[in-house]
Amino acid sequence: MELLVTSKGSGKYIVTDTKEREIYHITKARKLFGSPITTLTDASGYTLYTMKRTSAGKKPEYEIQLNERFFMKVLCKSMFIDPSIQFETVDSIYELKGKDQKHFILYKNEVQIGTLDTAKMVNNDLVYKLVFDDQSFDDFFPLFAVAADKCFGEMNK
C-alpha cells in the first residue's frame, strides 16, 4: 500500500492514495495555553488521533492520543547521524531509521514493514511517500510522516 502525505504549510497535511483520493486530513490547532494540537481526521471529518508536543528542544517528543487517552509516545532519537524516530505503544515499537533525513525504513518490533521517502515540491512544500505492507497498515501511519516533518522538515527544505 502507498500513501502520499503532502504538507500544505502551517501544520496542514493532506493524505492521498495512489489514485489521488483524499483519505485523511491533518490539521494543527493552536490552544490558548500549551502546545498546538495536531489532529488526524478521516475523509468524513471524524477525529481519529491527536498529537501534541510534550518536550521541545533539539530532540522533541510527542504524545499521540486516541479518544483523549494515551496511545503512543513519539521520540526523535537521533537527528543527524543515523536519524531515527521511535513510536512506542503499549504492545509495539515502531521505528523510522535512515542514513539521512530523507529516506527511512519503517520497522515494527524490529521487523521491516515499509519505507518513508521525502521529496520537495516546486513550491518548497514537502511530500512524504509511505510504502508498507497491506497487512501492517493502521490508520495512525500518516502521523509517522508528520513526526518526520516535525523532526526533520526544516532540514529537508
Please characterize this protein's 3D structure.
- With 157 residues, the protein is mainly beta.
- It has a single domain, classed as Beta Barrel (Porin).
- The protein has 1 helix and 12 strands.
- The protein has a 12-stranded antiparallel barrel.
- A hairpin with a 5-residue loop joins strand 9 and strand 10 (103-108).
- It is globular and about 35 Å long.
- It starts with a strand and ends with a helix.
- The mean pLDDT is 89.
CATH class: Mainly Beta
Q: Give the number of domains.
A: 1
Structural class: mainly beta
Topology order in helix (H) and strand (E) letters: EEEEEEEEEEEEH
- The CATH topology assignment is Porin
Please tell me what the overall shape is. Answer: globular
Average pLDDT metric: 89
Provide the fold topology.
Elements lengths: L1 E6 L5 E5 L4 E8 L7 E6 L4 E9 L5 E6 L2 E10 L5 E5 L4 E5 L5 E6 L2 E10 L5 E7 L9 H15 L1
